[in-house]
Amino acid sequence: MPIIPASCALALQTALTICLCSVPPHTADAATPLRDACSLFTASQVSRVLGVTVTDGQHPISSTLLLCGWAPAGAPQPDGKKLSVNLMTERAFEVGKASVHGTGKAPVSGVGDDAYYVSAGDRGTALAVKNGSTYVQIRVSGFPAEKQKELEKALALQMLTKR
Length: 163
Description:
Layout: H1 6-21, H2 43-50, E1 67-70, E2 82-88, H3 90-96, E3 104-107, E4 114-119, E5 125-131, E6 134-141, H4 145-162
Antiparallel strand pairs: 1-2, 2-6, 3-4, 4-5, 5-6
Helix pairs in contact: 1-3
């Protein structure tokens, strides 16, 4: 069996997650429509957590409400402080738990019904959270790995208390 380099594995996992986010869930709760990812946080909430002033959430792909990002005004900085949120399907959440070469998975307690961090070397971390029939991935960028995890968890807890 061929070994997939870590960079390819991460690209594959990211592509899979995005594709699976677009697949409608086939569950008893499927009648409940997915919300707009930008409705999960306000710019003020994100600004307080990240410690920088960010603009209102923007959909990076205008044809879908499943993805949203918050960043400081102006040209985006590749390694700047920002937040990305993806609404996921149950299937994408479960696939995200699978082991992929070059990525690490760690369960997180005290956040929703189920949660885990996924990390991929210098790409940082993301926190996937299940709460009832809602599945969300939260990714903070522009901080050291442990700080990213701390901020992702803080945002997840804010999101859960808002519901």
